[in-house]
Amino acid sequence: MLKITKLTRKFGPNTAVDAVSFTVEKPMMIGIIGRSGAGKSTLLRMVNRLTDATEGKIEFEGRDVTALKGDAKRAWQSDCAMIFQQFNLVPRMDVVSNVLHGTLNRRSTLATMFNLYPQADICRAIEILDRLGIAEHAPKRAEALSGGQQQRVAIARALMQDPRIVLADEPIASLDPMNAQLVMDDLRRIHEEDGRTVIANLHTLDTARRYCDRVIGMLHGRIVFDGTPEQLTTGAARDIYGADAGFSETSTSTSIETLERAGVRAMRTAEAAI
Ligand SMILES: Nc1ncnc2c1ncn2[C@@H]1O[C@H](COP(=O)(O)OP(=O)(O)OP(=O)(O)O)[C@@H](O)[C@H]1O
Ligand SMILES: [Mg+2]
Hints:
binds adenosine-5'-triphosphate; Rossmann fold; alpha/beta; binds magnesium ion; globular; 39% helix; four-stranded antiparallel sheet
């Protein structure tokens, strides 16, 4: 399906991504982990063609993605939708229009200028919002929503493109644990129910272990681990984060599990009170 071969990106003397190769044979959910500056964002941006590779190749179903230009490049960018840490919505625009922006790549400039959307697209946008449990917010301005809701709008916008691959760059880094869990659950569903490949840069080990079928670890621009969550032992994780990183499992853990434990505790307290 997706084949990355010796993909490299240099910024001046600095090599951000260094001869990275991996293959995705079938739709799956992949987590990319690594220290700050390891090259995770640059890798995703190259796959989406937001950043050009210095060397190497990206192929999708036999087609050379690295060589695409103009309309073909835009079509590819539709096929692999990107989700960002900061949601990248238009804050003053209503939610449904933000979602409809996901169809921009296949609409005329004039239709876009006058905010003209086909009825069928509007219905689909609302269906997608409904699927993500946020349809009631459709008429509100994006800025009126919580971070977690905004990220789900961004996911809806991505789904509007009907992408084969969803690339998510630290999708939960700005969210509280409860919303982080909701967003990760949505990404997992998008993979399982729709058969889309999800590749997410994650800054925490436990999220990668919990949600992903496969984890890729990067260090200094290179892949230093590629395996299942079970293979991602504490030792392997230490190698990914670098022996000198003062590594500890807890320092890279989100509080999803802590939250669950807190939830259980709260329930017990409530039960005890009854
Ligand atoms: N546009 C750019 N110009 C110059 N250097 C860049 C640029 N983008 C990234 N880099 C450098 O490339 C390296 C990899 O950066 P990248 O953002 O891909 O890392 P990352 O793993 O996503 O880090 P983080 O976890 O902090 O998001 C870093 O050394 C960074 O400074
Ligand atoms: Mg990054």
